[in-house]
Each structure stands twice: as structure tokens, then as C-alpha cells.
Amino acid sequence: MASEDVGVAAAVEVEEERKSAALEAEEKVASHFFILTPSGEEIPPEDFDFEGRENLWKFYIYEKAKRREVERAPPHVELMRRLEIADYEPASDPGNLRFYPKGKLVKSLIEDFVRSAVEEFGASEVETPLMYGIMHPTLSEYLNRFPARQYEIVGKHGKPELFLRFAACFGQFLLAKDASISYRNLPLRLFELAASFRKEKRGELVGLRRLRKFTMPDMHTFCKSEEEAIEEFKRQFGLCMRVLEEIGFSKEDYEVAIRFTRDFYEAHRDFIQELVRMAGKPVLAEMWEERFFYFVLKFEFNFVDATGKASALSTVQIDVENARRYGIKYVDANGEEKHPIILHCSPSGAIERCIYALLERAFLKMEREIRFAYAACLALSNAGSHYSSCDEASASRIASFKCPQKRRHPC
């Protein structure tokens, strides 16, 4: 398979690129990890027993190393092609895929389900533009606070004038700014499901896992107080678990990360522990000594694939900056204007990434079954059983199994 087929043409794309302050902070930020357990323990990773929690170990190593470059194609790349779901589009920019009829059907079904789940949760769907002006005073400031790389559109003077949105935040925030909001309307939830664009490093692009153009369900919730935001955050944690379960993922299929500032953790330790109990298993915690971003708390449900790389699916963040930055206000019971706290939620993560995780999980399940069947055959043979080889079903399964990456397997 040619390297450019999997989007790995170079470790870093050689190009002039504006980098946000948040991206630079993300690359330099100092934090430390520990494991939180449902029983309330805080355990350093080096002291935690990862036996039976191999994916949590892989996730921790991935997060600690912060290496996002693709070293080899994950199995889902071959599967998405063989099953005629999606493929690379040579005529487009890397990270922009084409979907075949079967893939488009699967993608649309997941989109319809997520839209329905969010509407049942109480969100109102809106539609906002895909591109915005770089020189807009509020947006230019926000670009420096969001850890993403932008597609920029150069104007007639040779300078960037517009950028393609990397999330639905801009449109929903500008919409909320112009709305008349009463405390009686809160929590107010706005939702959008549309294309987003991020100029990810070329060496990080691969298959459906990391794209430059993707479909992101984005819900923003405006809350009147920190207490309401915390309660809503807990409800959305449960929503994300239910959405992934309906798509086909159990709690054991993903690893939970909860990230927070030290100040927030010390003030809300019991709440964080409640989230861990909802997860029902040990989670990876990351704590920042100070706030570098616009949020003080976030979680993600992360899928670990066959190559050991982790990718976030569902996520929710508590945003304490952008209501003031955008001038979003509500009128309280005393008639005074106040700024709400905002929750950012993607209940499933990018739709393409859900398909990636489903394909990777199918490969991992088949790989385990093949190994089990092979081990059972060896056990029968070594025990001197009257069966001289595997039973017909196991032999057929082994014979028909195709290794997507031509890796060495018992088959």
C-alpha cells in the first residue's frame, strides 16, 4: 500500500501555517496524570495495576507520549475499502474522503440517530455558515483560544480573509448573542450537525480516524450558574454513554479521560468522583496546574485501536470564557443581565470516527476469535485428542480470515 494512500506523506506538512496560542499551549502545557477508581482512590499510573485494563494502559501511554503521527495504517483502512464504505479522494486535499453508497447509508443512519437523541434531550437544531471572516474582532480572538488548525481562504490582497469553521461554536455563539434570553429559558440547548474542517498535520491523517473534513454533532448549552452547569454536565455524561451504547459500543469499548484544572478539582472533587462511578471503571485523570484554555473541565470517551492509537468519541466541556467574549447575556429574576456558563457537547464525536471505531472493533474481535480458535486447536492436538486437527467450523474460520495488514497471525 502506497504511503500516500494512508495519508502519510511526511511527518509534518511543509507549509506556512498560522498557529493559535491554544495550539502552542497544548503542545507545551504541563500536566500530570493519575488514575481515579470508582471506590474513590487516586493512584499514580506507575502504582496502578493495569492487569485486565490493557486498553487503559495503552491509552495512558498514548496520552503521555503525545505522539499523534501515523506509523502504520490501522486495519480499518483496508476494511473501509474492502467493504466499499469510503476511500481517499486523490483529487481533493488529504483528509477529505469520498463515501460510497453503503458508506453514505451507514453515515446517514448514525447522523439521524444522533440528531434524534439530541432532540429528545431538549436541544433545538439550528444552521449556521461554514465560513467566517478572520478579521471579525470576536472570532479572531477566539481562534487563538481554540486548539485547532484552520483552512484559510486568501483574499485579493494575498492575505487570509476567511476561514472554514472547525466547529459549530462560532455560529451558535453569534446566534445566542443576538437572542433575548431569560433565566426561564435556561438551560438553553442549541444543536447543529454539519461539516467542520481542521487543517490537521499531514502525518497525522489516516483513514476515518483523523480527517480534515468531518461531520460533527455540536450541542451548546447555556446555563445560569456553575451549579446548573455541573448538573447539566452530569446529565450529558449519561447522554453520551447512552448514545454510544445505541451506536454499538459498550463501556468496555472505550476509555474515559477526565481533565480539569487543580482549582476546579479541589472545589468539586465529589462531583468528579460521581462521574467516575457513572463510568463504572477506572478512568484516566489529567490535571493542569492552571487554566490554559477556555474550559475548566472536560471528559472524553476514547477508543483505542489495533495500532495502540486513541481517538476521542464523545466529549463535554465547561466553558467559562466565551459567553463574555461573545457578549452572550441572559436576564435573571431581578432583571439584571448576566453571562451564562456554556457547555460544549458532542454526544458521539465525529460521525466518521464512529465508523472507524466500529470497524476497528470488528477487526479486534475477529483477531481474538482467531487466536482463541488456534489455541483451542493446539490444545486438542497436544492433549492427544482423537481429533487430528481443528473442528470443521474453526478450520473454516481460520482459512477464511484475511489479515488486512499482512501481519503475522496464526492464519
Would you kindly provide a written description of the structure presented here, covering whatever features stand out?
By secondary structure, this protein is an alpha+beta fold. The protein is 36% helix and 22% strand. The chain contains 12 helices and 17 strands. The protein has a 10-stranded mixed β-sheet. The protein has a 3-stranded antiparallel β-sheet with strand order 6-8-7, with no helix packed on it. Strand 15 and strand 16 form a beta hairpin. The radius of gyration is 23 Å and the shape is globular. The N terminus and C terminus are likely disordered.
Kindly list the characteristics that best describe this protein.
disordered C terminus; single chain; 411 residues; three-stranded antiparallel sheet; alpha+beta; disordered N terminus; BirA Bifunctional Protein, domain 2
Brief summary:
The protein contains twelve helices and 17 strands. The chain has helices at residues 21-28, 54-65, 76-82, 101-121, 137-143, 169-177, 226-247, 262-267, 269-279, 322-326, 351-382, 392-400; strands at 31-36, 42-43, 86-88, 97-99, 124-125, 131-133, 151-154, 160-164, 188-197, 213-223, 255-261, 283-288, 295-304, 310-319, 330-331, 337-338, 341-346.
Distance between the termini: 21 Å
* CATH topology tier name: BirA Bifunctional Protein, domain 2
Return the CATH class: Alpha Beta
The CATH architecture name reads: 2-Layer Sandwich
Low-pLDDT runs of 5+ residues are 1-17, 385-392, 394-411
Write the layout of secondary structure elements.
Elements: H1 21-28, E1 31-36, E2 42-43, H2 54-65, H3 76-82, E3 86-88, E4 97-99, H4 101-121, E5 124-125, E6 131-133, H5 137-143, E7 151-154, E8 160-164, H6 169-177, E9 188-197, E10 213-223, H7 226-247, E11 255-261, H8 262-267, H9 269-279, E12 283-288, E13 295-304, E14 310-319, H10 322-326, E15 330-331, E16 337-338, E17 341-346, H11 351-382, H12 392-400
Parallel strand pairs: 5-9, 11-12
Antiparallel strand pairs: 1-2, 1-12, 3-4, 6-8, 7-8, 9-10, 10-17, 11-13, 13-14, 14-17, 15-16
